[in-house]
Input
Amino acid sequence: MTMETRRMEVLVDGGSRQGLLVLEDGKLAAVFVLIDAAETGKPTVSGGWYLEAGFGPCGQLISAQPDVFPVEDDALRWTEQRLNRAGKH
Amino acid sequence: MNANVPPTAALVAKLTARDDLSAEEIAVLQGMMSEPRIVQGGHDIVRDGDRPGHSTLLIDGFACRYTTLKDGGRQITALHVAGDFVDLHSFMLKEMDHGVGALTLCRIATVDHGRLLEITHTHPHLTRMFWLLTLIDGSMHREWLVGMGRRPALGNAAHFICEIYTRLSVVGMAADNAFVLPLTQVELGDVLGLSSVHVNRVLQELRSGELITWTGQNVVILDWDALADLAEFDPRYLHVVKEPR
Output
């Protein structure tokens, strides 16, 4: 499995946000957007990467919405874990 | 909170919005309740798996029915306001299959199931009114199910606001399109089945569309018609119609 990332702006409600697209072997698996603390809706949480859309093993058909990831590496680690788990089935 | 107001005032308001009660029935309601007590916000009123010997009336405050999943995710399946029996169900169902928690400081009173049983023998009309309350609870569950399953998140949030305003109006806790709703965005997410991030966006959208303002705990509906239209809100399911029952 080869994971790669691409960056592009993503349209969300309220404007566009910095986006992080995660691909597995060239196929789109997850789209994260960078949000600030106020957007998390939780006063105790600082901003970070929010799973805007997931596909396949990262999608909401089989995966609960994860919490906001404080740093990009956490988001990538979560995506990798979801993809690896799916690969074992 | 006025000490001269009987603990059953909101319940009586809720019931008499649907049918007249006799003075004797109102006296029975007042006589059946225990002394009020306080439950702090964040604490359970009834736990999943309990077999309570009484049912609990919410005198004031906000409480919720909820179910928690293994991963810690919580779904709030009903929001309760003053005048609601939060677990009249336990009188017949016996074992609780969900929890009821206080979202804010709540004042509650209880009625023993033995007393409720007596009332079913002696007061058939009051018994039907209790039945009506659980039917309206079921009606709200249906509406929430439709909202979470099929309405866009924006419309579902609008629907929730319309519902709570209508219910609070019935018990005299909302007027002139304004009310107090002390829910966090996380709790609102648990109500609407949304992440707190999406709740934040939905509220921003409702604000920027000048449909509502929500400052601290104060909600003001700026344009009821537009909000109700967005929500496809049809209040029939709340059955706020006075007729013989």
About this structure: Residues 3-88 of chain A form one domain.
